[in-house]
Amino acid sequence: MQGDVGEPVIETEGLGREFRVRDGLRRRTVVAVDGLSVRVGAGEAVGYIGANGAGKSTTIKMLVGILVPTRGSVRTCGLRPVQDRRRLVRRVGVVFGQRSQLWWDLPVRESFAILASIHGLSPDRERSRTDELVERLEMGAYWTTPVRQLSLGQRMRAEVAAALLHSPDLVILDEPTIGLDVLSKQRLREFLVTERRAHGTTLLLTTHDMGDVERLCERVLLVDHGRLAYEGTLAGLSRTVGVERVLVVDLAEPGPDLVTVPGARHLGSEGGGLRQRFAFDAEVTTAAKVLAAVSEQVEVVDLSVEEPDVEDVVRRVYAARR
Amino acid sequence: MRATLRTYFRLLAAGFRRGSAYPLAALGGLVANATFGLLKVGILFATVEAGGGTVGGYDAGTMSAYIWLSQGLLGSVNLFGRTAVADRIKNGDIAVDFVRPLDVQAASVTTEVGTRLFALLPRGVPSVLLGVLLVGMSMPTTPLPYALGALSVLLGVVLSCTTVYLVAVSRFWLVEGRGVEMLYMVLSGFLAGLFVPIPLFPGWLRAVAGATPFPSMLQVPVDVLSGRVDLPTSAGLVGVQLAWLALTVVLGAVLTRAGRARLEVQGG
């Protein structure tokens, strides 16, 4: 399921977009996307990451034809997004994390009925697909509740379901887990994994959450100031920038800092050595090995592993480029 | 094509239901309509009396019909210039509308018409009943004016929505659209004949009003429904409404196209 298998679902060549902004009395030009050339193959799951203002949302808008590029070319599902908008959006599902596609004052159910009609689903197809989504995203409990009364987690599940109702070839999720609690995030990710397995949907995801990328994406595109700064696997990215994971152990009793754990670096202690933190490179060793080495020296009663976050990875890539 | 029609019917129904989501707002609107209706009764009845029982072709009965029908339509004919789609363009939610395989203009006007038609129930009908019960009014005694009147009311409501849509899409070019909305509100109410019936305007002002779509939103439906004008004239007025409707729809389509080409969806 790599990018070069079959027709690309997304293909951009030197794609760029500038904005003219007024800065006091002067006008200046801001380059949001700068010569972006990427390919995403059918069935791929790609994480599109970068700092705020790196050009992620601008790219997405150009991919779905709601923003006209100032240069370069873009093809989505083999179509020209601006000119073939209506044909394209039948094959694409989009969730803009901050914007709702549901009818605010109406029960959730009504939004799905309207969307099914908009996408021309047959009554049979509408019923089976709706049932599938309601069940898998556990929307039954609030199916007849007006959208404005939903919690954020409930609404995001409904938003994702709404974007997937017409079984699009390509799903674009712009910050789908922003503001969600751990459980809601987990449910949404599990659903997306199953959905992709069942339908072979291509996924493009922007996120601030490394967990989203780790659990959902096979490949990462990292943008910096509108330019592609990294393209490849997540593991490769971590390797490139040397992102370390952190093992936190709670000991049975306070002890001295354990500075001689092979493959790990002692980061610090709390509570007089009751809790100690070790950084390690997942490419060199594993959490289990580090834990074993620590356990040889002291008694461990509890532990947790901290994942690197997108911000951290992005910061390191940016720092390495300057 | 049938699937598309069904979709727009669903959007109309969605708009209708959206209107029903805020019963207290509708009640507030009714109270305002009734209050201003009584105020107009006081002023315009005095005018009729001062004119020796008729003024500009209106007597007390037809003036009452004008007052209460126009007050009743006020919740349904958009003379305020504000629409949901204007807000959506301003805050960028319009992006969501553009990623649907729908005509954005048709979809937003249809939804808006649904909401406006709903207002006939809590605001339109009670206003007219209030007028009949409290003041009394002259209404036609044959069915045809009512049939033509219903059509004319519908056209007036739709025309107000297609015209306000033009105000809304100005936001593609203007970040701050309140100026245009304000201008619309000031002009539309006056030129639609909300405050003073258009037949009482001086000749030149009547000509100015006639050059705008506003009379077709309010004065015309009221005239046709109340039977103040005869049937052939009514048919002609409905034709004028249709012409304005066609013009605003075409203009809206052109502006939507142009606006989309320079669309800069605001915010992330």
TrEMBL record, chain A:
Domain ABC transporter per the UniProt entry, residue ranges: 10-250
Where does it localize? Answer: Cell membrane
Major localization listed first in the record, in broad terms: membrane
Which GO terms are recorded in the biological process aspect for this UniProt protein?
response to antibiotic
Keyword Transport attributed: yes
Tell me which InterPro entries the record gives: AAA+_ATPase, ABC_transporter-like_ATP-bd, ABC_transporter-like_CS, ABC_transporter_ATP-binding, P-loop_NTPase
The keyword NAD belongs to this UniProt entry's keyword annotation: no
Gene3D superfamilies given in the database record: P-loop containing nucleotide triphosphate hydrolases
Q: Which Pfam families match?
A: ABC_tran (PF00005)
Record keywords: Antibiotic resistance, ATP-binding, Nucleotide-binding, Transport
Q: Which GO terms describe its molecular function?
A: ATP binding; ATP hydrolysis activity
* A single cellular component GO annotation: plasma membrane
The name of this protein is ABC-2 type transport system ATP-binding protein
Provide the species name.
Answer: Microlunatus flavus
From TrEMBL, chain B:
Identify the keywords attached in UniProt to this record, alphabetized: Membrane, Transmembrane, Transmembrane helix
The domain of life is Bacteria
| Transmembrane annotation, as ranges | 21-45, 65-81, 120-140, 146-170, 182-205, 235-255
Write down the InterPro entries for this protein, in alphabetical order: ABC-2_transporter-like
- Keyword tRNA processing in the entry? The reply is no
Q: Which PANTHER family match?
A: INTEGRAL MEMBRANE PROTEIN, SLR1174 PROTEIN-RELATED
Q: What is this protein called?
A: ABC-2 type transport system permease protein
Organismal lineage:
Bacteria, Bacillati, Actinomycetota, Actinomycetes, Propionibacteriales
